[in-house]
TrEMBL record:
The keyword Flavoprotein applies. Its cofactor is FAD. Residues 3-281 form the FAD/NAD(P)-binding domain. This is NAD(P)/FAD-dependent oxidoreductase. InterPro entries: FAD/NAD-bd_sf, FAD/NAD-binding_dom, Ferredoxin-NADP_redctase_2. One of its GO terms (molecular function) is oxidoreductase activity.
Length: 296
């Protein structure tokens, strides 16, 4: 069986594209591993229409049902290769032909193995100041991170709270200039590893450090490097990518450098908002539809 489009990745961008393509009455298959970045967040608070917030899992669950209601087929699994003749190969050995491919493969979020992180994500521990800086307004907040990146986040969060403590978890050196900035902004710096985030049902109660100190803190931000853009399959196929691995797309159509291959969401170099991913997916779907229609 051949498809008009196979969407690789069933996160926010992939689901939005699937909904649109289903409404265009195209034959669409969405393949998803179920391990996407959005599945980790217990609450998004900055999406229009959800004043009380909504979890990534809820968005994914409802989005999948909505896409399926428009005829989109879904398959749980991993794609291991996309061949130049547009045969998509799965981990289970299936070889599925398609006319177009949309990569919505996102970013593999890397966190240090500190107990409590995953339970608190989106509820009391955050990673994006633009998305969730508001959540710490006026509250004592821990920034747990590495070196200059963590220190810079601590400085940025002063827009919302005056009580910021930076835990330089890795002990990476800070420049004299950065040390001066932290001192001037009265940000307390602790050169110690965090051993645990103590919480109650995802609500942070304390930060425990390797020196056996317990810091009573209700909010925290993470600033760790090592996230991996999941663009390998597209690059192997021949799509251009930036130095950091983000797929290069046309700003209007979201097509990659390869004819018939699109990309949307965090695998593209954008602001990494859920709402931006939705827009990317919708925009890509319009141009996939136009491309398919011209080649009927």
């Amino acid at each position: 069986m051949s498809y008009d489009c196979i969407i690789i990745g069933g996160g926010i961008a992939g689901l939005q594209a699937g909904i649109m393509l289903g409404r265009y009455r195209h034959k669409v298959l969405m393949i998803d591993s179920g391990q996407g970045r959005s599945s980790l967040c217990h609450r998004y608070n900055n999406i229009i229409g959800f004043p009380d917030g909504v979890s990534g899992q809820q968005l994914r669950h409802d989005g999948k049902k909505q896409a399926e209601s428009f005829g989109v087929e879904t398959l749980e699994g991993n794609v291991v290769d996309v061949h130049s003749n547009f045969i998509v190969e799965t981990e289970e050995g299936e070889a599925i032909p398609t006319r177009t491919v949309l990569f919505a493969t996102g970013i593999d979020e890397k966190f240090p193995p500190i107990p409590g992180i995953k339970e608190c994500l989106g509820l009391s521990i955050y990673v994006c100041q633009d998305c969730d800086g508001y959540e710490i307004t006026g509250q004592k907040t821990a920034v747990v991170g590495c070196g200059e990146a963590g220190a810079q986040l601590a400085l940025t969060l002063k827009d919302w709270s005056e009580d910021i403590i930076f835990f330089n978890h890795s002990g990476a050196p800070l420049s004299l200039e950065m040390q001066g900035k932290l001192r001037d902004r009265r940000i307390l710096v602790q050169q110690v590893e965090v051993s645990k985030f103590e919480h109650n049902q995802g609500l942070l109660e304390a930060v425990l450090t390797a020196d056996d100190h317990r810091w009573e803190i209700k909010k925290a931000f993470l600033a760790f490097s090592g996230n991996r853009v999941q663009s390998d399959l597209a690059v192997k196929l021949g799509a251009d990518a930036t130095e950091k691995g983000h797929l290069v797309v046309h700003p209007r159509t979201k097509m990659t450098s390869m004819e018939g291959v699109w990309a949307a969401g965090d695998v593209v170099d954008h602001s990494q908002f859920v709402t931006t991913a939705m827009g990317d997916g919708a925009q890509a779907s319009v141009w996939i539809h136009k491309w398919l229609k011209e080649r009927r």
